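so ive been stuck on this for like two days lol. basically i have the seq below and the ligand is zinc ion, smiles is in there too. i just want the complex predicted, nothing fancy, no docking runs or whatever. if the output looks off dont worry ill sanity check it later, just need somthing to start from for the group meeting slides
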Amino acid sequence: MKIPLSPNRFITCRFENEQYMIYVGEYGPSGDYLSERHLSFTLTQWATLVMLSKCIDSTISDITNGLRAETLFRHIGSNKHVSVSYKYGVDLRQFYFLYKINDIRPNRKGIALTFKQWHELKLALKLLPKYIPSIEDTSACILRDDHANQIGYWSCRNCNPNSYSLV
Ligand SMILES: [Zn+2]
């Protein structure tokens, strides 16, 4: 599977550690290697991104219409975040927890999609089940039954990757 978002940016998937990982990334000039500009998603994290897509769209529409300067900043899982701004478009990025400041900081690993590329990504959504049948049965982590209570949510390493720092 290699679905284009632009001439050198693609959605791809790999089966690794017994699960599907979806990659959104930029490839090198010869098109055969994935550059540092990429972010990978578990199916659960991908479902979360899809769940947030309406929210992302309305932010884009507000920015495009000059109604707001930005911004949207949401956790996708395991310190991966999506943010939307006029300057960077739809930025999909890995963050890391910095103990010194007790807060997260952006990593170089990630990819900033233009609004057009984000639109292409949404068009690609309906193609994915053909390659990854289980994607249709996967819901966002936060929607799972065991996340209905606080303990379930707080003990989830995907939703709360830095929770041990709260102890
Ligand atoms: Zn979770």
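The first strand starts at residue 2 and ends at 6. Residues 53-64 form the longest helix (12 residues).
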